[in-house]
Amino acid sequence: MANNGKTKVVFLWHMHQPDYRDIMTGEYYFPWTYLHAIKDYVDMAAHIEAQPAAKAVVNFAPILLEQLDDYAQQIAAHLSNGEKIKDAVLASLVEPNLPAPGSMAFVDLAQKYLRANRERMIERFPVYRELADLVKNFQDKPFFSRYLNEQFLVDLGVWYHLSWLAEIPRRSDERIQRLQLKERSFTLEDRRELLTIIGELVASIGPRYKKLADNGQIELCMSPYAHPIIPLLIDLNSAKEAMPNVALPNATCYPDGRNRAKWHLNEGIKSFENYFGKRPRGCWASEGSLSDDTLKLLHEAKFDWAATGDSVLHNSLRAHENHSIATELQATQQSLHRAYEFASVKINTFFRDDGLSDLIGFKYSTWHSDDAIGDLVNHMVNIANAAKDTKNTVISVIMDGENAWEYFPENAFHFLHSLYERLTTHPLLELSTYSEVLDQQNPEPLRLPHLVAGSWVYGTFSTWIGDKDKNRGWDMLCDAKQQVDQALRNRNFSAEQLAQIEKQLALCEGSDWFWWFGDYNPAQSVSDFEYLFRRHLMNLYALIETPAPGYLNQVISIGGGDPASGGVMRQGHVS
C-alpha cells in the first residue's frame, strides 16, 4: 500500500498481572487478575470494537492469559455444579455464610472490599460510599463491627464488585443497571447473577481480542512467559551499562540465565499460540527491558519487532560506539520517532514516546476529555510536522492497559472514546500497528552499533536491582536456582514433576516481586508482593524436595512510601 501522507501513530496497550496463585493448592492470594479483567481488559476491547476504524497493538503476558482461562473455568464450574472458587474474595461474593460480625475475619473481608480507587470508584456510588465510611471506623473502633450484620458485608461485597465492572457493559447491561438501582439488601440470587456477569466478562476476553486481531483491528503481541527481566537473567552486570555505579547483588550472575531467558520466550510463544492460534510477530520484552543480547534472542525466536522506552534510546545515543551517528542525527535534525536496528541484529526496535505516554498515565485523568485529547493530538501533530518524513516516522504511545483508567472518571470512558474517534478521522495522523507499518511502509531502520541495556522506566534497571531489598531478593532467587540445578542433577523426577518445577521457577523469576521491594513503595503492596515472592520460593524448595532456608520466613522489605498512583505505574523519565 502506498504511503498516504499521514504519520503513523501506534498505541501499544500492555496487559499483565503476575501469577497470584499458589501452585501447590491453586488458591489465589490476591484478586487483581479477575478485577482488572472485568474492568480494564473488557473496556479496552469494547472501545476498539465500537469504532471499526480504530487500531492498536495489545500485549498479553502469557501468565495472565492462563489465569484468565482458569478464572473462567472456575466460575463456570461453580455456577453449574457448585465447585469451590479458589479465590477467597471472589468466592465471598456467593458464599452463603459470611464471617460473623465482630470477628477478625469480618473486619478483614470488609477492608478488602475497600481496595478500590476512593475518588473514582467508591465515591461515585453513594451507597458504596456510605458502607465504606462505616468500615473506616473499624480502625479506631474495632468493636464497631459487632453492631453490624451479615447483610452489611453482603451489600459491601456486591458494591465492591459492581464498582470494578467495565464502563461499557455498565451502560448497556440491564442486569448491572438493575443491581445498581436496587442499592442494598442484595439476595444470594442477586449475588449469583453478578457472578454470572463476571464469568461472562472474563470468558469473553480471549475470544474478543482474537476476533479483533483476525479482523485486522489490533495486533497481538506477547511478553516472555512469566514476565522476567530478560537482560538481567542473561547478565546481572547489564545493569551497569546505564548505571555504572549501581550496587549489585552478592551473586555474580543468575545461573544458566540465558537458557532460562530462552525458556520464557519459547514457553510464552507456545502459550500465546494456544490462546490465539498463531505466533506473535512482536515482543514487548517484560518492562521493555532490552539489551544487545536480548535483541539477539528475540531475533533467534523469529520476532520482527520489539519496543522499549525512549530513555533507552537517549542513553544509547550518548554511548561512544554510537557517537558519529548521534552527531549526524543532531546536525540533520532527523526525527527520533522511527524504527531502529542495533548491533547488526535484524529486528526493528521502536521507542515509546515517554512524554506522550506519561501525559495519559499521570496528567490527563484530571482534565476534561476534550481538552486532554486536544492537547495530546496537538503534540502528535507537532512531532509529525517536525519530522517531515511520513514513510519512516512512527509515533509510539506505550503504556499499561489496566492501571491508569481507575484514575479517570468512569474508567476513562469519555477519554478513550474520544481518543479513537479523533485519531481515526484526523487529516494528518493515522492509527496503525507495528507489523502493519513494517508490511505497508517498509521503513528504513536507523542502524546503530550498540543499545545501552535498560527498561522503559528511566532507561535503567533501577526499579528491579540496586536497592538493598531488591538485591536481597536476587540473592535469594540465585540461591534457589542453584538448589534447583543441584536437585535436577542428583535426583530423578518424573516428567510431570519437572514441568511443575520449571513452572514454579518461572514464577519466582517474574519482575513484579523486585518492582515492589523498596522503602519508596506503599507498605500494603510491598507486604503483599514480598510475601508472595517468599511463598513462591518456599513452594519451589518443596517441589525439589529440599529444605527451605530459614530466611524465607523473614520479611525482606517493608515499604512505607507514597508514590504516584500507588506505585503501580512509573513515569518513563526521572522526574
Describe this protein's structure.
Helix 2 (62-81) runs antiparallel to helix 10 (188-214) and helix 6 (126-140) crosses helix 7. This protein is globular. The chain has helices at residues 32-50, 62-81, 88-92, 104-112, 118-122, 126-140, 150-163, 167-172, 174-182, 188-214, 230-234, 257-276, 292-300, 310-317, 323-332, 354-362, 369-387, 413-424, 434-441, 468-490, 495-508, 512-516, 523-543; strands at 7-15, 56-60, 218-222, 282-283, 305-309, 340-342, 348-352, 394-400, 429-431, 446-448. The longest helix is centred in the middle third of the chain and has 27 residues, at 188-214. It has 575 residues and is α/β, with parallel strands linked by helices. It has 23 helices and ten strands. It has three domains: 7-15 and 223-241 and 253-448, 7-stranded beta/alpha barrel (Alpha-Beta Barrel), CATH 3.20.110.20; 68-206, no CATH class; 468-567. Strands 1, 2, 3, 8 and 9 form a five-stranded parallel β-sheet that branches. A three-stranded parallel β-sheet has the order 4-5-7.
How many structural domains does the protein architecture include?
Answer: 3
CATH topology of the largest domain: 7-stranded beta/alpha barrel
Terminal residue distance = 41 Å
Helical content class: 40-55%
**Inertia-based shape:** globular
Q: Calculate the mean pLDDT score and round it.
A: 95
